[in-house]
Hints:
By secondary structure, the chain is of the alpha/beta class.
Amino acid sequence: MDVGPEGFVRSLPLLRRRIRRAAFVAVDTELTGLYSTFPQNNEPSLFDSPVERYLKARQGVQRFTVTQLGLAIFSKENSNKYMVYSYNFFLFPSTLGVRDVEVTLSASSIQFLSHYGFDYNKFLKDGIPYMNEVQEKILRQHLLAGSWKSHSTSAADRDVLKKAIDEVTCWIASAEEEETMILQDLNDYHVLEIQLILRQALQNIWTEPLGNKKVVVKKVSPQRRQLLENSSSDPCEKELILLSARGFTNLFQILVEAKKPLVGHNMFMDLMHFHDKFYKPLPESYEEFKRNIHNLFPVLIDTKTVTKSMQKNYLFPRVSSLLEVYAILCSSSLNPKDPPWPVIALASDCSRYAEKKSPHEAGYDAFLCGSVLLMSAHLLLCRSTEDAVEADPSFSQYLTVLTEHVNKVNFIRGGISSINFSGEDAPCHHPPVLVVHVRGWPGMNERQIYQEFKGLCRFDVRQLSKNQFILLSNKYKHVRLVLRDYKHHPHLQVSVYRHWRHSPFVNCLLQVSGVVALWSLLAFVLGRAPSCS
């Protein structure tokens, strides 16, 4: 279940076969942070348009990184059964040959993951490298020019490399040609890195890996060295170096090529990190980002979008977390009897999730996400027709009842309800906007207005004019509550916003129109007055 750098390359062929046979794949990410606090006022807001939210999120994605990525592969068996292969990949930016990457940590995100037992040692010490296409292009150029450089910042890695270099330097001074020595106790990263460093520094040696954790160093003549460098079986051949440095990006490319339906829960940030970390740096254009993601993954399903719709149309309790949604769907009251929803079985090598809940572990959340999709789709299929549903529905039947939700990714607290990756975004219907007129409290600002209403309910605030503020909520009951409780407030007059009455632009236009009308009237009157003779 937990795949580290040492076993990752060996796992790629098996992962490729399983993904190609899959009905769909579910993903989840754990991050070092969400939204950047620089610049100020970068928090998500109900006032955000899709473009504004994308630009805010883009700043966060560029600062923060993925600590863990979960992949759950759902394969349809012969009967009404899905086998699940769930994996955890700890990730860490590649330090080989690319510009050194800054890793930013958000205190609240780190505290949150720590609460759920996240292993930061695995993230920092055993993370699988990755790079996007721009970084790969730079590394390829450096390899061709022989000017690559490592940016490893780990003190432990530097100590291992220094020790190995010192050993070889001392040994080679007295060694004869064709003599060998063995460097031991290395990991996959060290095996490659040490060979590249030694070959670049010493022209009279040759290196080869010996098993998983050793490197053989041989003293050779310059002529012999040249012959070995031109050998097609060289383990440090440039394409093999690129394969190692790309790391998880190799698996990302397998997912892109397979074009399987990609499932997530509140997956907007997941998709942004996929684009930025494994494909290309995020573009400035929101529409270009949407086009790119749609080309990479033509079928997206966000279980948050699906379950939000079910809450409106069925007797489905309003819950927020993925684990709560999964628990409700598993309850006997919602499980259709004829036919019951498909059996979801975890493969033997990831059975831990069947025995123990592991919320906010990426592999577990990916498993929950795919399970929620299957159960939701089956429930929708059973309730979409009065006719009997066959005992073993195909996944294509599930996709058919999910058609209205395909490529609609949930948009948290904003001007739209979901992002449509295959068309135009539909506007969101919010409760009435409120306007607050301040009297007798000079110098009030947005933060003070927010604090005033915070104890009662949650609103986003935006200043309209010197003494007026707009309040926006996504809950009708909050609007009714504020209108009732502030009806007779001595300093804050709260009313429903009317554009023709409260808009500063409309007020300015009316004032200008009034002045123009007055001057026109004066000109007319003066023009008709009798002249003095």
